[in-house]
Amino acid sequence: MLAMFFWAFIIGGLICVIGQLLFDVAKLTPGHTLSLLVVVGAVLDGFGLYEPLTDFAGAGATIPITSFGNSLVHGALQDADKHGIIGVLTGMFQVTSSGISAAIIFGFIGALVFKPKG
Amino acid sequence: MASKEKNKNMTLQQRNYQQLQQKHEIKRPIVKNCLKAFLVGGIICVIGQAVTYFYIYFFNFTEQSAGNPTVATMVFLSMIFTGIGVYDRIGQFGGAGSAVPVTGFGNAVISAAIEHRTEGFVLGVGGNMFKLAGSVILFGVFSAFVVALVKTLLVIWGVL
């Protein structure tokens, strides 16, 4: 269990360092960087490389935004197994639902509760 | 590439100014920034790991399925920290370390929602909520669509 915390720290940290390098060296805006990382996550899952990383690093791989692309592909492929090509559309948000729903719901609650500062 | 294109169309004065500006541009402390990003990003992932174990032990999730409630919880935490104004401070210190984890995605949605609240709930909050995070969803969904489609077709055609 402690090893899992350790690897979550290392892998999660390294993914963030990649993001920071894209900020500082490639001079990308945060929007471009995050979009790029999501696409990378999707492509990695296409080759079946993201799941081993999740097994190995746990939250170190599921918390960075790359896992968003990974779970989109995952949901799409799961449904494609069952229903063929139409499953790519129907399954897309199956796994990611919690992240998007949470962002929308908590975003709205946040807007109701908190007042803008500055 | 784009900058070279731009260079050609500039007058001599503009080019000189750009050189001068580049000479005086403050060098970004890359190593220091990376260390900070590593530290902050790592800590956020460790918190995420603790939340994952919480769901595994108390709500009977498996290691595979615990990722979903974990992401939702992290977004919830980022709402609290964004609302009380702490996440911005973390962002100033951690750079990509706070932007790359899913909490950064949550922060982008939630801060946009809070910021545009004065313009009303429908046009302000509703219309601007995904202003920053929308590109992540767009490119995520589109690339996932292409990847999944290609892989499914390959399976159907018997290549894989």
UniProtKB/TrEMBL annotation, chain A:
In its UniProt entry, what is this protein called? Stage V sporulation protein AE
The record ties this protein, via PANTHER family, to: STAGE V SPORULATION PROTEIN AC-RELATED, STAGE V SPORULATION PROTEIN AEB
> Where are the bilayer-spanning segments?
6-26, 33-50, 85-114
Print the keywords alphabetically: Membrane, Transmembrane, Transmembrane helix
Has keyword Transmembrane? Answer: yes
Q: Which Pfam families match?
A: SpoVAC_SpoVAEB
Q: Which InterPro entries match?
A: Spore_V_AE, SpoVA
TrEMBL record, chain B:
* Organism for this UniProt entry: Neobacillus rhizosphaerae
Name of the protein = Stage V sporulation protein AC
Whether NAD counts among this entry's keywords is no
Q: Could you list this entry's UniProt keywords, alphabetically sorted.
A: Membrane, Transmembrane, Transmembrane helix
- Record's keyword annotation contains Membrane: yes
| Listed InterPro entries | Spore_V_AC, SpoVA
Where are the membrane-spanning stretches? 37-58, 70-87, 136-159
Superkingdom of the source species: Bacteria
UniProt cross-references to Pfam families, sorted A to Z? SpoVAC_SpoVAEB (PF03862)
